[in-house]
């Protein structure tokens, strides 16, 4: 009588005999990812973002530059009713629910993707968690205040980078890391889904 094949873990694959399936792929049961731990990172980003925005709203004067590093960095509280860099800021109000829905949709997709990642895929898990935390931070602002609080202003001479916040930093760092991960992925895995 033939013994059933035992399941074994081989790198990022679950194997039964000679057949292997990548962790997180549809049909691979019994392997849990550590999505919860990464969502704690998202929560930390969200809390840090909201705490710094609360500080900015209660301490910083509106539209007044407070030098942090002369010639390079100011605190400067402003409000953004649009998207990144103030895009859609004067669009008449429809952008608030649209941008909030977009942020929540992106978060839902990334949480779904995060749950499907193999346990050791921190190179994607960390950026996903950063984007989730940042998107939730700005969405919370839109829901609570009707606009996003920005307060970090970098500049050099007469060039001023658009004012931003902690959530924006998390989104940009996460998005760049996701893109870099996609560019550096081996060709053999580029056809695979998450």
The number of helical elements comes to 4
- Give the N-to-C terminal Cα separation: 38 Å
Q: Would you list the SSEs in sequence order as H and E?
A: EEEHEEHHEEH
What would you report as the Rg, rounded to the nearest angstrom? 21 Å
Poorly predicted regions: 27-32
Q: Can you list the strand order of the major beta sheet? A: 4-5-6-7
- Global mean pLDDT: 82
Determine the strand fraction and express it as a percent band.
15-25%
**What kind of sheet is the major sheet?**
4 strands, antiparallel
Helicity, as a percent range: 40-55%
Describe this entry's structure for a reader.
- By secondary structure, the chain is an alpha+beta fold.
- It folds into two domains: 1-31, no CATH class; 33-187, no CATH class.
- The protein is built from four helices and seven strands.
- The protein has helices at 35-59, 95-116, 122-144, 166-184; strands spanning 7-10, 13-16, 19-22, 66-69, 73-80, 148-156, 159-160.
- It has a four-stranded antiparallel β-sheet. Strands 1-2-3 form a three-stranded antiparallel β-sheet, with no helix packed on it.
- The chain is globular, with a radius of gyration of 21 Å.
- The model is unreliable at 27-32 (pLDDT under 50).
Q: What are the defining features of this structure?
A:
194 residues, 2 domains, four-stranded antiparallel β-sheet, 18% strand, three-stranded antiparallel β-sheet, alpha+beta, 4 helices, globular
Question: Brief overview, please?
Answer:
The chain has 194 residues and is α+β, with helices and mostly antiparallel strands. The protein folds into two domains: 1-31, no CATH class; 33-187, no CATH class. The chain has four helices and seven strands.
């Amino acid at each position: 009588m033939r013994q059933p094949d035992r399941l074994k873990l081989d790198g990022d694959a679950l194997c039964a005999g000679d057949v292997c399936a990548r962790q997180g792929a549809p049909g691979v049961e019994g392997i849990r990812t550590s999505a919860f731990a990464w969502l704690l990172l998202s929560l930390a980003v969200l809390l840090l973002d909201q705490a710094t925005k609360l500080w900015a709203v209660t301490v910083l004067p509106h539209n007044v530059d407070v030098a942090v590093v002369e010639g390079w960095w100011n605190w400067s509280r402003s409000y953004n009713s649009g998207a990144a860099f103030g895009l859609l800021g004067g669009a008449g109000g429809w952008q608030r629910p649209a941008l909030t829905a977009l942020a929540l949709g992106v978060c839902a997709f990334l949480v779904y993707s995060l749950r499907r990642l193999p346990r050791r895929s921190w190179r994607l898990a960390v950026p996903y968690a950063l984007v989730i935390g940042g998107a939730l931070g700005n969405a919370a602002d839109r829901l609570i205040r009707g606009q996003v609080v920005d307060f970090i202003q970098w500049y050099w001479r007469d060039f001023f980078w658009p004012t931003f916040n902690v959530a924006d930093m998390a989104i940009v760092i996460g998005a760049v890391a996701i893109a870099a991960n996609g560019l550096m992925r081996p060709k053999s895995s580029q056809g695979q889904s998450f």
